[in-house]
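Give me the fold.
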Amino acid sequence: MTQQSIMRKRNELVALSALFALCLAAGGTLSQKPAGTADSPVELSGEPRHHPKFENEFVRVLDVTVPAGDATLWHVHRRDNVVITLADANLRIETVDAATAEVQWKLGDVNFRKATYVHRAINIGTTSFHNLTIELLEPPAGFSESSVLKETIARQPILENERVRVYRVSLEPGQSTTMHTHFLPGLGIAVTSGKIEVTTEGKTRPDRLTLPAGDVRWRAGQVTHQIKNVGRTRFEGVDLELK
């Protein structure tokens, strides 16, 4: 065999090896399931409509927007969570191992879901869907509620279970809450935009805050304060206490 023949054979073998490798790569790609399906859901951190907003060792807050006609990927919720709705919208919720449901979400709705579940949300309405999804991480330790009766931010919670207690606050212009005490850490969330004045026990001056809808404020521990609506429109908020 001549040197030229040897080189030709070697080049043919190299070409065949490259072609075989390409076929294997293509076959491997085709055999993989696409991410974001019911069979292969993405983690919540990989769902593009869920945006991180706030996180500490106790909670993770995600800002979620699904425009009209759009849908989330199939994704998995591995933490108990509270969802606070910031805009009216009509959704179809498809959940693995559960019936499909069409839901009319209303501004200010508060819902609790236990983990773990896999679903996706399809916006079948004409308005954008907007919510805050609050994942409950580690329960706070070292906090206890006093046995002495104290005023609360609202008369009755709208949601309470072993993980959270949630109050709704609705203040007309000029209206105030009572001076009330929070014993537990938690979040104050503005459902609507507004201007408020917060008078806190132990502080010489009140704090004035201009809040956009969806504003989130962390409360690290016990505090006694009063909230007044100093704006020109009704202010609505949600207060979430962690147990």
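Residues 3-31 form the longest helix (29 residues).
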